[in-house]
Each structure stands twice: as structure tokens, then as C-alpha cells.
Amino acid sequence: MPHMKFYSNIFLFTLLFALTGQTMAQESIKQYLSGKGKDDGILWDFKVSEGMKAGEWTKIPVPSNWELQGFGKYNYGFNKEADKGKEIGSYKHRFSVDRTWKNKQINLVFEGVMTDATVKVNGKAVGPIHQGAFYTFSYDISKHIQWGKQNLLEVEVAKHSANKSVNAAEREGDFWVFGGIFRPVFLEILPQNHIKRLSVDAKADGSLRLKVQSKGSADEVALTLYDAQGKKFGKTIRKSASGSETWLEGNFEKPALWSSEFPNLYRAEVTLYSKGKEVHRINQKIGFRTVEVRQRDGVYINGQKIKFKGVNRHSFHPESGRTTSKQLSVHDVLLMKEMNMNAVRMAHYPPDTHFLEVCDSLGLYVMNELGGWHGHYDTPTGKKLLKEMIEVSENNPSIIFWANGNEGGHNAELDSTFFEQDIQKRPLIYPWAVYGGFETTHYREYNYGIGTYDHGHNIVMPTEFLHGMYDGGHGAGIEDYWKAMWANPLSAGGFLWDFQDQGIVRTDKNGILDTDGNRGADGIVGPYYQREGSFYTIKEVWSPIFFEKREMTAVFNGAFTIENRYAFTNTSDCTFSYELRKLDGSTESNKTGAIAAPSIAPYAKGTLQVDLPADWFSYDALYISAKDVYGKELFTWSFPITLPAKVAETKKKRDGTKVEAQETGDAFVVKANGIQYTFNKKDGLLAEVKNGKGIIPFHNGPVLQEAVNNYKSFTMRQVADTVIIESKFDKKESYNTLQWSIYPSGQLKMHVQYFPESYFTRFVGVNFDLPEEEMQGVEYMGMGPYRVWKNRMKGNRFGVWEKAYNDVATGEVPFEYPEFKGYHANMYWTKFKLKSQSFSVFTDREDVFLRLFTPKEQQDTDWKNMEPTFPTGDISFMNGISAIGTKTQKPETTGPMGMKHVYYDFEKEPIRALHMQLYFDFSGK
């Protein structure tokens, strides 16, 4: 019996193997000759003609860009002709094939080669040279295979194309130019009778059309759908095959629809039969969704009008160039969705297929773009490459637009090919042009843009706006733009430029990160995804849950007015929670709680009712978090409860020694509780502070900014236990006034009353000197941790923050964020940590900005719009701060928040003056 059981098992195993083999024989087989991405490359023999390591045969991983592997020459698309990389790379690789494939069709497939590829197998050319870097192409090499021995694959790659139009479209643009076999290479093994191409059109109403193009003999085609759980969905559709092209049509009842919010996918299993026998089967993920452009109205997905919150994305990694990976695609899409984006534009060429698959599965609307910058492919080349692009991406439900090049790189002769090749007839976009009912002009000034919104007739959807060079753009201006876009029915949103700083590792320059000066420093995140402040501004502004402005007062009943800016999600599918926090360093008394999610339909307003505990007003801050249906944070909003005046009272110290004061020929000298102050007698400025540890290098202030420093006629007097030094008000000569109060505790109070010098001002406040080399860091209470601009106030959180000193420039090495220098909003108090000792400043006034030094100017830029003017001095306390511009716009053209402050009262009446009141504690505690 044991022997019988053994042979029985052998029989079952053999049968299972046979059945499995039969199944495998019916499906396409892939055998990779390369790695699948940047991290698992397979070594091929390699030689490059010019530049680094020229002329020597060695090894290189495939896929890769050869520059990043230490070969050839780096060059940017704007390089002069003499500097353009014109290397030729020679590849050799030996591979074996399975003898069982002898009666199969064997295709050699390249997913991307930069740029001209000449391919040989066993010494013979397998087809014409392929020109065009970002496209999947293949050769049938069945007749070139040597069975029973290794086969030699040789590929000659010319980085610079022999086709001028290919160079114009791909290699003369505003991005890095690379060479090499940069995407995977594999063998595709097919039965002689097989499906060549599958085109699917699945609509939101459940209707489905399927075009099957086949090779060889077949008499029947069948389609079966399976849902995400693997369960069969609807009935199998069968139809007799009609030559090389067969259409299937069917209707499926109530399919789960695909959208960026709910990316529901089905698996379409398509089977080809010949004489009742299955000869080939392929599986394709699809999504049911309808894309509709309603002229003079908008873009509708599944019947809902959509505002696109998009960004432009290059295929990029600093260590591998254009060679990426599935893992990177997942990472990038998740990061975009973390910013509450719902769309991405491919810049300026088709991406890896796995990026589109990730957009399908995680949910992003995609604009897929035929290569082109300011130049375009000639018509014969363009038609070939366009067909290759559509063949590999036509069934991705995430793709809802095609783009015909970029910024003048449009070839109108290709328009008809888009519609001929795509059975879904997706909308075609001309970025930076008026076409097809869309106005997509790039980098529109806010005022011009709003005029077009209000008076134009096309759907407005800029395919690039708010250029993010360095720290300009992106978050700076987006609140104004989005407010206008959201309010206008003709706006379909837009796409920011761009996602990631293009900082590339220079293997020829000791591994430095190079953005080619200012050209590649356009990202919301750094080369290694370091998050700039704009990341969080975008996250808040583009949150699908929008909070109306709300002040915390004692009579507040916990009711927040919110707006649901989702297209398909009810707020009842989200989760909300709150936290009450005291910002004194302890966490024991903090309180948290869940908030019942209200039922608010998409695009409607409603109330979020927070059931706050009875003592909620005794806390310092309220935080409210919202999470989406998948548990991902949309944003956490902070609401200050305690105001600066209350916090200041806890920091004021009255008790101490008697205040001693004396007047010299040029100064007032005051001592209290071990601290000595010296004030300039003429202008009243703080000249020196000294305590038991020595001189504190904080002095020469308050110097007024954008106002006349005309403090005059200072006197010193004592009121009770306090010494007061103050200037005299005169409406003509000394209308700006300064008062110092020195208390027995040694604390110093400053009150400045002043009038801005002109009608329009960039910033207003008071300045002090503090040597930068003394600074180690700060701890402060206010909005943080990122700096702000007048036109980028969103994205931070109210709390207590610690920041170590750094001297980084946004978009440059070392890409260290948050930046230390700049403006910080809603300061309550700050502790300055110096090398020698520390001191503190606090205020009882609201809306005070803390300015920490002047950020250094970025290198290699002629674009000054994003280099805002800063106050004089080193440390400032401001009533108003400056905005920042973009590469193409001055701050004031990014919207109202970017404009200068307006102060129009020239009467110089004290009641109408601006005020700055600060308290200083130089005790060193």
C-alpha cells in the first residue's frame, strides 16, 4: 500500500505538471535579460566611445543610464552643440533559450533605450534602427535563435540621435540628457497563434468594448471579468473571431467604478481559441470609468465635474537618472497623494509602465505625453512612436488625457493618429496652447488668469503653473490661485511644476549633487524626497476637507463649518479626531477624542460638531485631524486657544532688586537683578546687554523697517519700581516713538509705535543685530516648523518648536529642511540659544512674525523674483513680511497675498499707528 500511495502521488504530480505546463503554454512568457529596475540590474559587457572610461570593454548593469555608472559625459538639454553628449555605447550579452520554445514566436522587447538602438542577435541585424528614447519596441527574433547553445545579443546605442527631430523633441529641453538601455529588456515568448494587442473601453454605465488583434488562426475570442477578490463578475462574452481583428461588446451591471478616490480594478481574462482549443490567454487590469469633456463647462469623470490638483513628474532618481523601479513608482504616487493631489502629468515623455500601473491601483488621474519640449518629432517618426506609446498604455484607466508634446512641441499632423489608435478617444491636450476647448497657458499671472477665468469661454487648465524654482512658487501663491480656480466653473484646476528637484549624482565630480545651477531645482521635494515647506502648504490647500476660518473663543460651541471638496466621497466615509494640548512641555493633561463624521455630499458644505470637554478653553491649542476612507491623513489643522497676552503673563517677572539708573553724556545705564543695560541717549537704541556671564551680543535695535527712525528727545524717569526711558512724540519731527521699561526682575519691555514710510510697503517691523556666528538654534512658540512668506502661510501647525541653526538655500546641497533662516509666523515667545548663553523674547501682541537672519542667495541664477528682499539687521520682529515670487513671476503677480502691504494713513495720529511690544529676559535661564 505505501508503494501504491507513492505511485499515486507521482501520477497526480505528473498530471498537475502537465496541466500546469499546458496552462503556461497558453499564456505569454517573459524571460528578463536585464534587471527590472534600478536596484537589480544584470551586468552586460559594455564600452563607450567618449568621455569617462572611453574605449575599454567592461561591465555595466542593465537597465541603467551610463553616466550614473561612470561612463561617457553628463549634459543638460540646454548645452551648446559642442557640449552635447554624442557618445555611442556598445552592449553585449549572452543568453540561453528553452528548447520548448522552438515552435513559439520569440520577441526581443526593449522598454526604453536612449536614443538610437541598433540590435543584432548572433551577428545579424534583427530589424531597423529604433529612434526615440521613451518607448517600448520589439523585434521578432525567432529566426535568429541558435538552439542548444548561447545566443549573442549586441546593441549599439547612440545617445545623440541621427534624427534631428528626435533630438529636438527629446534632447534639447530643460532637463538632464542621458544615454543607455535604461529600462528593462526581456524575451516575450508567444504561441504562433496569439493575441497581438488588446484594446479596452469600459464605461461607467457598465458597457464594454474590446478590440482584439491577433496573429495566426483563431475562430473564437472570449472575455471573462474578475473583481478584486478574484470572483467572476458578470457573464463570459464569446464571439467568433473575424480575421486578425475581432470586436467584443457587452454590458456589466453596476460595476465598481474607477476614479482617483476609488481606484476599483477588474481583471479581464481574454482567451483565443482555435477549433475549440485554447491557444492563447492574456490578463489585463481594467477600470470602468467615463471621461467626458463638456465644452465651455469642464471635465467630467463618471458624471462628476473634476478639479485637477496635479503636478508634473519626470522619471528620475539622483543615483540612476531615468532608470527607476516599481518601488519608486509606488513611493512617488503615495507622496503625491499625501499632498492631496489627484492628478499627474508626465513630463515630457511617457513614463515606465509600472508607474502607470501604480496610478491605476492607487488612484491618480494621468496626462500621458508624447515626447516633445519646444521641438517635436517629424510625422513618420511621431506616428511610429505614438503607436508604441498608446499600445503599452491604452488600457490604463488612470490615463484620461493624451498630450501632444509640450510648449510648442506639437505636431498637428499626429492629432488624427491619437484618435485612430485610441478606441476610448480620450481628450487630446496641447500644453501651453488653446486647443480642443482647453486653455492651458503656462505660468499665467494671477490677474491675467482671473480675467480669463471671468471673461473667457474655454476650460482653463494650465498644464504648468506656479513654477517651483528654489523656494518660490508651489506653495507660494497657491492659496490665491486655488481659491480662484475652485470658485470658477470654467476652471478644471491645473498642474504644478514640478514634483522633484532634478539633482543628479555626478560620478565625474566626486559624487556631488548637481541641479545644473537653477535649472533642475524646481521640485516640491528634493532629489532624495526632502520635503520643502511648500509640501505642507499644498497638502492643506488641496485637502478635500476644507475648514472655514474659525477663532477660538470662550463661547465657541464646537461647530466647525466645513466643505466636502471630494468628487465621490461622502465625509461620512472619513474619520475625524481631536486633541487638546497644553504647550508647557507636559503631555499628561492632553486630551484626545473621536469626532462623529457628518454626512456631507461631495461639493457640499456642512457642520463638523466637536463635543469638547467642559474645560477645553483652559488648553493652549486644539488640533483636528481628518483621515480618508483608507486611513491616510488628509491634514491636521491647529487652532490656538490661548492668546499671546495670556502666555506673556506667565513669563513676566516683577520681583527682584532695586533698579539702578544713571545718565552719562551719551547713554542711559540701567542695572536690575544682575543685568546691565546701556541705551544710546540720542536715538534710544539698545547698545549693550550684560549679565553675570558676560555680554550678550544682541543690540542696535529697535531699528524701524520701512519707517523713519526718528525717535528723539529721550528722557529717563522712574514710576514706582520701574525705570522708563522714552522718546517724545512730535507729529512732524518724531512721530515714531520708543519706550523702554526696566523692571526689578531685570526683564526689559520695549514698546514701539510707528507709521510706515510709504503707502505700499514690502514689510514692516523692528530689527536688531545678533552675530550669526553666535547662533546655535532657537526654541519658539508659534506656527512651525517651516518658515513662511506673505503668500505662503498655510501648512504649518501651532505649537512649540526647536530648530537647530543651518545655512541652507532651498533647492541646493545639503537639501536640509526645514530651513532655519527666514520668517516664522504667530510668535508668542522665542528662546535664542547662543554659543555663550541664551536669552528669551516674548510678546503679548498677536500676529507677530519672527525673522531669523537673511537666507543666502541661491547660486547660479539670473531669476531674482524668488529672492525676496529682507529687512536690515539680523533678527526682526515684524508686523508684516514680504512675499516670494516664482521663476516667471514677481511676488505681486501671484495674487493678492503676494502684493505689498497697504498703509494709507498719513495723519500720524498715535491712535492709528502700528505697535510692536516685546519683553526680553536676559537672565540666561
UniProtKB/TrEMBL annotation:
Keyword Hydrolase annotated: yes
Catalyzed reaction equations: Hydrolysis of terminal non-reducing beta-D-galactose residues in beta-D-galactosides
- Domain Glycoside hydrolase family 2 catalytic, by residue range, is 291-415
Q: Which EC number(s) does UniProt give?
A: 3.2.1.23
GO MF term list: beta-galactosidase activity; carbohydrate binding
Q: What class of enzyme is it?
A: hydrolase
Which residue numbers delimit the Glycosyl hydrolases family 2 sugar binding domain?
57-189
Family matches, as SUPFAM superfamilies:
(Trans)glycosidases (SSF51445), beta-Galactosidase/glucuronidase domain (SSF49303), Galactose mutarotase-like (SSF74650), Galactose-binding domain-like (SSF49785)
The residue ranges of the Glycoside hydrolase family 2 immunoglobulin-like beta-sandwich domain are 194-289
GO terms for CC?
A: beta-galactosidase complex
Cofactor(s) listed: Ca(2+)
Q: Which residues form the Beta galactosidase small chain/ domain?
A: 675-841
Q: Which PANTHER family match?
A: BETA-GALACTOSIDASE
Question: Whom does it interact with, and what assembly results?
Answer: Monomer.
Q: Kindly provide the name given to this protein in its UniProt entry.
A: beta-galactosidase
